[in-house]
Amino acid sequence: GTAALIWNEIIREKITNFIMNKSKEQRILNFVLQNAVRGDPCSVLDTIDKYCSQKEWAMNVGDEKGLILDKTVEEVNPSVALELGTYCGYSAVRIARLLKAGAHLLSVEFNPEFAAIAKQIIEFAGVQDKVKLLEGPSEEIIPQLKKKYEVDTLDFVFLDHWKDRYTPDTILLQECNLLRKGSVLLADNIIFPGAPEFLNYIRNNPRFQCTTYPSHLEYMKVEDAMEKAVFLG
């Protein structure tokens, strides 16, 4: 798995970027604009999955783990959801398409290039009314959610950013009183590349009830899993 990722993420991607004078993320965007149906979120998701499984690997949640994400969002039926790590907007589109009328998703992305691409993909999918993209580091944005973005509490949080931020950001969400009894956290990539510190924290915390969903790394046969944690208050 590691060797395959090094090949896909570093060597092959750098060569392709140089030859095409475009980033992989720009290539994903172009593929969506050329092949997906505007205003159809499922078409956008299928097109990204097709590109990433057949052409270039990318760190979207992907189709297999996407079903776990879908199921969790449908169970929670959130009014206010938070995503940490937008990347190209794949999971934001995936979540937004399932939100009820009046519900919204706040999606946080640190990388300005990724945020610009995600914005176009979200708009192309037709879910821009349900998604607010917040650009900057999660540790700065989380404390602003109540006052600046008028969030009372979060019903659902999807963690899919830097793995070493999973634990401090979960602690920060609690310190800022953004979790209520029944709030659900779902964390991606807990086996590969792995988030051992987060698992140790969340599974040994009496304030959370945890469930593990075994799966595979997006677009690969490498073992991975997602961790669901329900806040007990």
UniProtKB/TrEMBL annotation:
Mg(2+) binds at residues 160, 188-189. Its EC number is 2.1.1.6. It is an enzyme of class 2 (transferase). GO terms for cellular component: axon; dendrite; membrane. S-adenosyl-L-methionine binds at residues 61, 91, 109, 160. One of its GO terms (molecular function) is catechol O-methyltransferase activity. Keywords: Catecholamine metabolism, Magnesium, Metal-binding, Methyltransferase, Neurotransmitter degradation, S-adenosyl-L-methionine, Transferase. Its cofactor is Mg(2+). SUPFAM superfamilies: S-adenosyl-L-methionine-dependent methyltransferases (SSF53335). Belongs to the class I-like SAM-binding methyltransferase superfamily. Cation-dependent O-methyltransferase family. This is catechol O-methyltransferase. It comes from Oceanodroma tethys.
